[in-house]
Design a protein that fits this description.
The protein is mostly helical. The chain contains 15 helices and no strands.
């Protein structure tokens, strides 16, 4: 059976999928909020990144770069699952609104710090707030998506939604880097870029306000009552329940493992790339030449993400999501090992494209699997766990490799570890996901096996298609 047996044969292109899901007014509003906000994300990352990594007054080394990743991503990633409990309790529309406004304010503060030449704690604290709230925002978008599209359109929505957001984030980032190049990678250009990001976040908040307050869920079987303190006391238990919910669903468990493996390896390669361009290809350039030639790598990655948006819906109508994830991970290993050993700039541009396709293809399939496997009142927790895994494994890869990475980034052993690691991840994921099985015939009056989390079913590892409430959504198997 194909990955999406219910999809009409005519929907085989990104534009066709976009047209289909945009027919719903709810999706259109959610889509607009995402695009505006993620344009701001690109601008913010470009403004901060050029200031931290390509500033003429700094000379990055592996430890310093890895420390920057850790400071920016680890703290809020570790508390991400706790936010997920509230995503499952509070109006997701309100979360989108207030998180956008909060980011707008703190991004403007960061712009002031950059303009005055501040480094260290002031910059890191404001960045932590902006990026931490942003993951909260993106988790809410993912958890809300099933409320604005039909179940058989989730694959399409997961392609055109998050992928379009990623592409506009790349466009915003490229625009921000362009500002940095025009201003000589100075403080003024970075500050202007950050202020533009703040404007985008503010507009995203106004866009979210166009949706009814209760339109995005969560769907609660019974009202959650009690004070914030009482809810906080239940966070740990809720997180454990969410993890148990994932553990008993083999496709979801395997997909999260694949995501973690990819991000770990990507953390190593990104650290290597920054050091190569700054300290090996263009040493002594003050950051300007390095940034100018690093820009094509960013552009090629963006094109790869866009290609994945077009390719993934087509492929997953003929192959299962598990098979496509396996192919993407294996292809990432082949491309990295075959091209990276040359340590040439053209080859690294090609690697950027290849890993862009792999990264977004895996992300689309993983998001779809999680949405189809999880009950609605667990989705927020599960997507927060996914976000935590996404960032922690990335930082872990960069941090561990920093101890062995030369100052100029040119390391044949580290590159081979990344290439072979992707191949091992592909094989491991294929074994962990298992083979899809045909759905069991429905039995009258019988409760779905594994349908209740509290029941602790022995059938919890079976593919989604084996559960009566999921037969229409077999693409996750």
């Amino acid at each position: 059976m194909t990955a999406d047996a219910h999809a009409p044969a005519g929907r085989s292109s990104f534009i066709g999928d976009l047209r289909t899901v945009l027919a719903g007014s709810g999706f259109r509003k959610l889509f607009a909020t995402r695009l505006i906000s993620q344009t701001g994300d690109g601008l913010f990352n470009a403004g901060l990144g050029t200031y931290v990594f390509f500033n003429a007054t700094t000379f990055p080394n592996p430890a310093a770069a890895a420390t920057s990743f850790a400071v920016l991503y680890l703290p809020y990633s570790l508390i991400g699952p706790f936010a997920g409990v509230f995503i499952d309790r509070w109006s997701r529309r309100q979360i989108l609104l207030w998180s956008a406004l909060l980011r707008a304010g703190f991004t403007a503060i960061a712009a002031v710090f950059v303009l005055t030449g501040a480094l260290g704690l002031p910059i890191w604290l404001t960045a932590l707030v902006v990026l931490g709230v942003n993951r909260f925002f993106l988790s809410s978008l993912s958890a809300a998506l099933p409320h604005v599209v039909a179940a058989d359109e989730l694959v399409m929505a997961n392609s055109v939604g998050p992928t379009s957001g990623t592409v506009v984030a790349f466009i915003g980032g490229i625009a921000g880097i362009g500002v940095g190049l025009l201003t000589g990678t100075g403080q003024t250009g970075s500050a202007v870029t950050l202020l533009a990001a703040a404007v985008c976040y503010f507009l995203a908040g106004l866009s979210a306000r166009r949706m009814p307050r209760t339109s995005l869920g969560p769907d609660l079987g019974e009202a959650h009552v009690g004070s914030v303190v009482v809810e906080l006391e239940g966070v740990a238990a809720g997180l454990l329940a969410g993890l148990r919910h994932v553990w008993h669903r083999r496709p979801a468990r395997a997909a999260l493992t694949a995501t973690g493996a990819h991000r770990f390896l990507y953390g190593i390669l990104l650290l290597m790339s920054i050091l190569l361009y700054r300290n090996y290809f263009y040493p002594g350039s003050g950051g300007h030449e390095a940034l100018k030639h690093f820009l094509p790598v960013v552009i090629s990655s963006a094109l790869g993400y866009g290609a994945a948006a077009w390719l993934t819906p087509i492929v997953t109508r003929r192959l299962t999501n598990a098979t496509w994830i396996t192919i993407l991970l294996a292809a990432g290993g082949v491309v990295t090992a075959a091209l990276g050993l040359t340590f040439g700039q053209v080859e690294f541009i090609a690697i950027g494209f290849g890993l862009g396709v792999a990264a977004q293809g895996v992300a689309i399939c993983t998001t779809t699997i999680l949405q189809q496997e999880m009950e609605d009142d667990f989705r927020g927790r599960v997507f927060s766990v996914n976000d935590m895994l996404y960032n922690v494994t990335f930082v872990l890869g960069a941090a561990l490799s920093a101890a062995f990475m030369p100052l100029n980034g040119r390391s044949v052993p580290m590159l081979l570890i990344v290439g072979c690691g992707y191949l091992v991840a592909a094989a491991g994921y294929r074994l962990a996901a298992g083979q899809p099985r045909p759905a069991a015939p429905p039995s009258s009056g019988a409760a779905p096996a594994g349908g209740s989390l509290g029941g602790g079913s022995p059938a919890g590892d079976s593919p989604a298609g084996d559960r009566p409430d999921s037969r229409a959504q077999r693409s996750s198997s």
